[in-house]
Amino acid sequence: MKEKKQEKKQDKKQDKKKVKMVAEDIDVEPLKKSASDKVVPIKLTEASRFKFRCHKGVSCFTACCSNINIVLPPYDLLRLRKRLGLTTEEFINQYCEIEILAKTLLPVITLRMSADEKKSCPFLTPDGCTVYEDRPSNCRYYPVGMATLRKKEAEGGKDEFYFMVKEDHCKGFEEDKDWTVAEWRKDQGADQYDDINRGWMDLLIKKKSFGEREFPEIKNRMFFMVSTDTDYFRAFVFESSFLATYDIPAERIEKVRTDDAELLKLAYEWLRSAMFAEETLKFRDGVLEARKEQADAVMRKVYGNRPKGQIGDID
């Protein structure tokens, strides 16, 4: 009997050790959206299964829609402002805050909660969400979360995984509806949002890899304007020298002219080029040579015909 008890104790210790090892795999604090969030520190895949269902009949209906921090990636913001018939500036002024995202020091848009006691979502009513068809990614995913970490050894240089958020008040987990993470993402339309926002997430991950070093203000402003205001970037593409500078296929140009999702994807590529000097967009023939000639002309105007090795020397 003593031997069996010892074996059971040993098994429990090993189980606890396994859980601890998995738990240490995730830094849960950055994944929390509110103070009440309880992130289950276990990595999930698209094949992972869970039970959950949210509907008006559960006692906690809309309890998760208050006192939360919701960052609005570009496509989330686009869908909401178009739903309400607002320009980017109008939507931000009425419903949002501009915050500096920790560890990237880049400006992002967050949804401003109402001034009521619960700090409710501005689109919440007793009957539910008034913008449900265009709700943000965070709301679509709940109670699942997604995280992306930059890892050199991982495929594509990043590790993308899922996790579960379990709040004490949530009764949705008691419902008898079974899902895989992949099924949940598709059912909630989160996969479409991820596809269009992924380029923006990659920019955040890239900037985070630089450490907490601030970019010049002009780069922060450029990131903010291009990633939040599709009207601004579309004007930049079609009303500046953009198309004379970059070799964009004609078919893609026509898509960008009318398709906001395609426009955002082009915006991310241009930001990677402008912010990190990555060769994401091809220059037209002769553009780089012309820029070099212009730069040389400026140098000659400033320094005259002094040899390059002497530029900056003090007489």
Keywords, separated by commas or semicolons:
9 strands, 2 domains, single chain, 315 residues, 12 helices, alpha+beta, two-stranded antiparallel ribbon
Task: Describe the model.
The chain is an alpha+beta fold. It has 2 domains: 19-188, no CATH class; 229-284, no CATH class. 45% of the residues lie in helices and 14% in strands. Strand 3 (96-101) and strand 4 form a beta hairpin.
Topology:
Layout: H1 2-23, E1 39-44, E2 49-51, H2 74-84, H3 88-95, E3 96-101, E4 106-111, E5 124-125, E6 128-129, H4 137-141, E7 144-150, E8 158-165, E9 178-180, H5 181-188, H6 190-208, H7 217-228, H8 230-239, H9 242-245, H10 250-258, H11 260-276, H12 287-303
Antiparallel strand pairs: 1-8, 2-9, 3-4, 5-6, 7-8
Strand coverage percent: 5-15%
Query: Can you tell me the overall shape?
Result: elongated
Mean pLDDT metric: 84
Label the structural class: alpha+beta
Total domain count: 2
Order of strands in the sheet with the most strands?
Answer: 1-8-7
Rg is 25 Å
- What separation lies between the terminal Cα atoms? 93 Å
The number of strands is: 9
Give the ordered list of helices and strands.
HEEHHEEEEHEEEHHHHHHHH
- Helix residue percentage: 40-55%
Count of alpha and pi helical runs: 12
Low-confidence stretches: 10-32
Question: Gist?
Answer:
With 315 residues, the chain is of the alpha+beta class. The protein contains 12 helices and 9 strands. The strands form 4 sheets. It has a 3-stranded antiparallel beta sheet with strand order 1-8-7. A two-stranded antiparallel sheet has the order 2-9. The protein has a two-stranded antiparallel ribbon with strand order 3-4.
